[in-house]
Amino acid sequence: MSDGEVSEPVTVAWRSQGPAPGPVPSSPPPAQVVFDREELRQLFNLYGRKVADGEWRDYALDFLKDRAVFSVYRRATEYPLYRVEKDPRLARRQGAYSVVTQGGLVLKRGHDLSKVLRVLDKPVRLVGG
Prior knowledge:
By secondary structure, this protein is of the alpha+beta class. It has a domain at about 35-115. It has 2 helices and 5 strands, in the order αβββββα. It has a 5-stranded antiparallel sheet with strand order 1-2-3-4-5. The chain starts with about 35 loop residues before the first helix and ends in a 12-residue tail after the last helix. The model has no long low-confidence stretch (mean pLDDT about 80).
């Protein structure tokens, strides 16, 4: 182009790839249940003490749509010894938190996580004779 010349405007055509977007959903999809920072602090404090005592060696966190689960293991290849579950659906009834054994027995259930975790933090006593 030389000085003084004006170029013609360029028209760009845009084609969509696929169907037009559908309507926006009226409500967001259900969120996952998670442990908050304070709950995780309590869980990991207990876990650290038990690891130091040699009782636990591994853990797993599962965040599902209906509950959050903190599982502890004696060995990584076993079933969990205990599961600490947070189920908000039970918050108004028995409490959102529960400690469940490997066999499915609920050891403790309640509204306060620190009180529920006490069932796992009891010291082992030697029964002598």
